[in-house]
Design a protein that fits this description.
The chain is α+β, with helices and mostly antiparallel strands. It has eleven helices and 13 strands. Bound molecules: alpha-D-galactopyranose. Residues 33-34, 36-37, 124, 166-167, 169-170, 333-334 line the site of alpha-D-galactopyranose.
């Protein structure tokens, strides 16, 4: 996907003029899944796949938006009651509304956009879209919002216009991404640190199961509610506990009889996962990739058996990774479909991809998609 492609479509749809072009990436996450909305740590990085949008202020109070990939055109106003029906357009509308709610004075614009982040693959195509418009509109209308606020605008768009009560990880990674570095983010304080990630002798590769679960957003919200119920129970005994991040297994154990077995399992996973992120950071500082990989497998187990956000196909891909001697492998992102992320030694890479592709095809009748990870920059203006 390139600028010229987006530009040619923009020119075609909007009377031959050009505007400014902005881009934002999707993300990977090395470890720390479903920890962000629990006030915990995550370890994402931006990728070389994302969204590109051309935008030109049109002097009206209407947004005229064209999705190049879906070949769909939508026009909407900027008031709350103008919300478009098309789900892709709600992301753009939501970003506009959230900027306005923060005092940004924005007007109408023409825009066309396209992307190459696979949809529903757990790589945050929606955050890439939100960040692209948050970043661009902030700059073009001179709203003076900082990058933290831009990430929060994307997250609030999900909450208020798309029905997903997500955490901040995806939008943060998309806005703050840096080529060659992962970001360790404390999702409560939003303190962050770039970790140059260049595991000599290893590759990071995603295997996309091409499974898309339609109920993912309601199941996601339910996981979050489980965590909140566990926190409420722990709070009765330990009032300062604001998030599961503040709790430990001992305190969870104390309330075992007060919450459902399901909520207990969810909270157990989260408490362990938050610790795994910290363990992985320590291991990375020592160049100990074996430990990093082992933690990834532990995360997969937890996501599959305790948090129950994996699926048969992803478990299958994880098993194959183990059989092929892959250093670390796990389901990535929200789950219920999408990709596994795999840390593989260079000399095992070819055999793993060949074996996983053949076995997956034999079992499910289609090949997984393979994406080599290139850790890239966050939101930016291209021209
Ligand atoms: C989705 C959400 C994120 C995060 C992940 C799971 O990608 O958007 O906020 O919760 O799931 O780690």
């Amino acid at each position: 996907m390139d600028i010229e492609f987006v530009r040619s479509r923009f020119i075609k749809h909007f009377d031959g003029t050009t505007g400014s072009v902005y881009a934002s990436p999707g993300r990977i996450n090395l470890i720390g899944e479903h920890t962000d909305y629990n006030g915990g740590f995550v370890f994402p990085g931006a990728v070389d796949k994302g969204m590109i949008a051309e935008i030109k202020i049109n002097g009206t109070d209407k947004v005229r938006a064209y999705s190049i990939d879906l070949k769909d055109y939508v026009e909407f106003g900027l008031n709350e009651e103008d919300a478009p029906r098309a789900s892709w357009a709600r992301y753009i509308f939501g970003v506009c509304r959230e900027i306005i709610k923060r005092g940004g004075k924005i007007g109408g614009f023409n825009t066309a956009f396209a992307g190459d982040v696979p949809l529903g693959a757990g790589m945050s195509s929606s955050a890439a879209l939100e960040s692209t418009y948050a970043y661009a509109l902030n700059e073009m209308f001179d709203c003076k919002l900082d990058k933290f606020e831009l990430a929060k605008i994307g997250q609030a768009t999900e909450h208020n216009y798309c029905g997903v009560n997500c955490g901040i990880m995806d939008q943060f990674a998309s806005v703050f991404g840096k080529a060659g570095s992962l970001i360790r983010l404390d999702c409560r304080s939003l303190e962050y640190q770039y970790f140059p990630f260049n595991p000599v002798g290893y590759k990071l590769v995603l295997l996309d199961s091409v499974v898309k679960h339609e109920l993912a957003s309601s199941a996601y919200n339910k996981r979050r509610e489980s965590c909140e119920r566990a926190v409420a129970a722990i709070q009765k005994k330990h009032p300062h506990v604001e998030f599961l991040r503040d709790a430990n297994m001992g305190w969870l154990e104390e309330v075992k009889g007060d919450i459902s077995a399901e909520d207990y399992m969810r909270a157990e996973y989260v408490i362990e996962e938050i610790q795994r992120v910290l363990d992985v950071c320590d291991a990375l500082e020592k160049g100990d990739y074996e430990t990093v990989g082992q933690k990834m497998y532990e995360t997969h187990y937890g996501m599959s058996k305790l948090y129950e956000v994996s699926c048969e196909e992803l478990d299958f891909l994880n098993d194959i990774a183990k059989q092929c001697g892959v250093t670390g492998s796990r389901v990535m992102g929200g789950g219920f479909g999408g990709c596994t992320i795999n840390l593989v030694k260079d000399d095992k890479y070819d055999a793993f991809i060949t074996e996983a592709t053949a076995a997956y095809q034999a079992k499910y009748g289609r090949k997984p998609k393979v994406y080599d990870v290139v850790i890239s920059d966050g939101s930016r203006k291209l021209c």
